[in-house]
Design a protein that fits this description.
Strand content: 5-15%
Number of helices: 14
Number of domains: 2
Mean pLDDT: 81
Order of helices and strands: EHEHEHEHHEHHHHHHHHH
CATH superfamily of the largest domain: HUPs
Low-confidence stretches: 41-48
Distance between the termini: 65 Å
CATH class of the largest domain: Alpha Beta
Helix content: 40-55%
Number of strands: 5
Radius of gyration: 22 Å
Largest sheet: 5 strands, parallel
CATH topology of the largest domain: Rossmann fold
Strand order of the largest sheet: 3-2-1-4-5
Oligomer: single chain
CATH architecture of the largest domain: 3-Layer(aba) Sandwich
């Protein structure tokens, strides 16, 4: 029996990793041990240890359930240690020791482990093959994280939107039935950061508007570009049909959506929906209004 050690945390329930594990299992009789090193708090954030461990445990349990449902022998642990130290300890304590290692990370642009050379350090620490699996979280993974209460909010589309809405603790802020054709992305910051870096935010908005102009002028060329960043979904005929109904917001449409402090636009109602949800959940314990959340100025020329 081949013993495979899997090392992953935030990506442990990702489809790419599950597929890689199942491929190993199909190649022959395999035992899987999954270890989730608990994430360290990011700089500037207060993250309680119990919360981090609970989130890691939920992700791990989901993965173990998926593997066991496919007839794969699997167990796992949540540990509070550096991933390289975790692997060294596993090789000295697990019986039999692993015959191979799979390390799963986010893509390079978002991976703290890759910035710390974790994969290469693990390769240097063991004498067995080490496979690196990159998990780029999809719309499905976003809903899974929401269902597991690992994130406070997620943006997704069908069929995962309906799956998410069916979960008791999930609250819908808005969707295309409420605002037909509207595809929303959020840029969130604080008032002080915005004032300090206003020109950079305005440059980002300008780039967005240039992209919108390109999509509207060259839809056939734009679709394949978008498909590459949405997991190929726009290659599906139904997805293409939906794509053609999206209203791409240029500068003027954004101005109408935001409105002004004196004449608020629909954005204010979306902000109020969020306030109502988080107040009902007890997350928001002080009085807040949409005008406290909506920052004007990014649309200025």
């Amino acid at each position: 029996m081949t013993h495979v050690l899997v090392v992953a945390n935030e990506t442990v329930a990702g489809k790419s990793l599950i597929d890689a594990i199942e491929q190993r299992a199909r190649a022959g009789d395999a035992r899987i041990t999954v270890i989730c090193p608990v994430s360290s708090p990011r700089s500037g954030y207060i993250v309680y240890e119990d919360t981090r461990r609970a989130s890691a445990r939920r992700r791990l349990d989901k993965t173990l359930d998926l593997l066991r449902n496919h007839g794969i022998a699997a167990d796992g642990f949540v540990v509070d240690a550096d991933p390289v130290d975790v692997v060294r300890d596993a090789f000295s304590q697990l019986v039999p020791p692993p015959d191979a290692v799979i390390v799963s990370t986010h893509p390079a642009a978002r991976s703290g482990w890759l910035r710390r050379d974790v994969v290469e350090r693990i390769r240097a620490a063991v004498d067995v093959p080490v496979e690196h699996v990159v998990v780029d979280l999809t719309a499905e993974d976003a809903v899974t994280a929401l269902q597991l209460q690992e994130v406070d909010a997620a943006v997704t589309w069908e069929p995962w939107l309906s799956q998410g809405k069916a979960v008791e603790h999930v609250h819908l802020l808005t969707d295309s039935t409420l605002q037909p054709g509207l595809l929303v992305g959020c840029l969130i910051t604080t008032a002080s950061v915005f004032q300090d870096r206003k020109t950079e935010f305005q440059a980002l908005a300008r780039i967005w508007f240039e992209a919108v102009d390109y999509v509207e002028a060259h839809p056939e060329e734009a679709m394949p570009i978008m498909a590459r960043h949405l997991g190929g979904g726009l290659e599906d005929p139904q997805a293409v049909a939906q794509f053609k109904t999206i209203r791409w917001f240029d500068r003027e449409r954004h101005r109408a959506y935001f409105g002004t402090p004196e004449n608020p636009g629909p954005m204010y109602q979306a902000a109020q929906n969020a306030i109502d949800v988080f107040s009902d959940l007890g997350v928001l314990t002080f009085k807040l209004s949409p005008s406290d959340l909506v920052i004007h100025g990014i649309l200025d020329e």
